[in-house]
Amino acid sequence: MSTLLNSLTTELRRGTLTLAVLSQLKIPQYGYSLVQRLEKSGISIDQSTLYPLLRRLEKQELVTSSWDTSESRARKYYSLSVYGEEIFTQLKQEWEKTSQELYILLKGEGEDGAD
Fold this sequence. Notes:
By secondary structure, the chain is of the alpha+beta class.
């Protein structure tokens, strides 16, 4: 893949990863379980991308975290805050609207011969 295509693909994925992560945090998840859930849906995410994203979402008060120390290995669980649920719902609606508009635009690509 060319450097330009790599850059554009990364830019495209950046916003969608936030939506994908938020969508999976209605039920508390720890990092590895979140990676597995996303991969099961065909979305790959490196831990070097996931943890900074989770920290940013927590700083923005969209996500809360807590430690589970009931097992031998402590795990940090992340879940949507009330504010995060509100933002996720609005973001999801915006995504659906934008993707429908883009689908129509791309489907009609080249039909009028203008491009």
